[in-house]
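Data follows
____________
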Amino acid sequence: MLPELTENMEEAGPKLLAAMHLSSPTCVVGKFRMYVAVWTPYGIIRTKRNPETDTYILFNPWCEEDAVYLHNEREREEYVLNDIGVIFFGDFSDIKSRSWSYGQFEDGILDACLYVMDKAEMDLSGRGNPIKVSRVASAMLNAKDDEGVIVGSWDNIYAYGVPPSAWTGSVDILLEYHSSGSPVSYGQCWVFAGVFNTFLRCLGIPARVVTNYFSAHDNDANLQMDFFLEEDGNVNSKLTKDSVWNYHCWNEAWMTRPDLPVGFGGWQAVDSTPQENSDGMYRCGPASVQAVKHGHICFQFDAPFVFAEVNSDLVYITAKKDGTQVVGAVDTTHIGKLIVTKQIGGDGIKDITDTYKFQEGQEEERLALETALMYGAKKPLNTEGVIKSRSDVHMDFEVENAVLGKDFKVTITFQSNGSSHYTLSAYLSGNVTFYTGVLKAEFKKETFNVELEPFSSRKEQVLVRAGEYMGQLLEQASLHFFVTARVNETMDVLAKQKTTVLTIPKVIIKVRGAKEVGSDMVVTVEFTNPLKESLRNVWMYLDGPGLTRPKRKMFHEIRPSSTVQWEEVCRPWVSGPRKLIASLASDSLRHVYGELDLQIQRRSSV
């Protein structure tokens, strides 16, 4: 009788599980072993261990009682269910984008994400709380201090791993980390953000990747970026500790914040790129975006750092030889110039700047800064007794759209709005730069004098030759120009800085064959070398959720102007709109991408 009862229970187990009520909205997130137990006169009888009835409990943004409930269905489809995203990078004046395969539904990814919490030895009691889960993951996604998922590298040397720009998505990274238990090399901010987004969506937390153009890294927490200049206009690198990133990517996660006053729930900024230490670990957030906007940086977690990223002032200070410091210019509009994310249901840009800050120049924007200072941020640089320069001479410059391997021009414009005659001593510096704002090498240095008649303007052009920058290029082919000018009659100093990202060739993807679930189709990845030199040790990568697992292929050399092709047979298993993503990386050329949108049909009925 006992064997019969046990056998019947094993058959009934899955049906009983299907009939159970929903789990509690505060239930621990993770993998549960499910079985049926019955009290009998002979003791407890329990079904045998059966992996097929193991059950995963996730956060549920469809459940009104859940801390991550999101009421809008289109937003749930985008921020939870969409497994392909767009990440924006480049420069404010030249925004570029690349697709990213989140792959949260791919085999093994859910187990890999749960492993991240296990590796962190996170208490089970906290695994039902999205605040604690996102904060732990913020630390664990980087390997800075805890053997986390990704090793960050910004030095352009990637001999022991994959260059950050070569990754096409999160799947390979998470699966490798799960199988090896060791950090994966290498990542930069968009890689950290892409993988973090996979983690959050996989566990049911609505999430999106955000890009902030001209993102401040405030090292001394005084809410201003202090750029110290020598009297000749050069940047004083010893005094200048702050930096401005061309762009920086982080994540937003949607959740309630019962630990904060009413109104500070919703989108929370979380960042796994290792920048600053927070409570003993390299992590950031969750910080209420609404609190950041209003300057309420007293609320946890790491709101002062996020506030500085989007709302600092940029201050140019001349450090004189006699030890005095003169504030030459203050730019209140440079930092946090534009904050964007992917639009819902499309690949375009959604401007979310107004969710982080009030419009520049409005009274509310300055009030938010005053509130932030009141809540404990360090006071700005003491400029008491310092004379702020005032001049009716203005300067600006533009960088011509530049193509990799081609010459281009920088045009500087000087404008006099007064009745005086002026002479200016100007200085232009061109540097290859990391997107973090750190300069690698100066490839261009030019000085010139300018005479300005009253109420007139004058343009100066500087030619930048390809040979001057090609040998110094870094990961993203980013060039930074710094122009300073001293008005000799008043000793005022004018300063402007801008970055340009060179236009890089693309990878071409072609498909032939039936675009149907279960049918073979041939994917061709093609690239033509536009440079005058051979590319060596070239890796090409291909990815597409629901179409193919991530693949890679190496070419030892691609000669100038020659074309290489790589073919792979793919068999789609998911219907609907899909995307193929390809990238290319070599010793001398990176950040080369390509993508192709496909509409995959359901399997034809026989």
User: Anything to note?
Assistant: Residues 477 and 502 are 6 Å apart (CA to CA). The radius of gyration is 28 Å. Residues 508-600 form a domain with the Immunoglobulin-like fold (CATH 2.60.40.10). The longest strand covers residues 439-452.
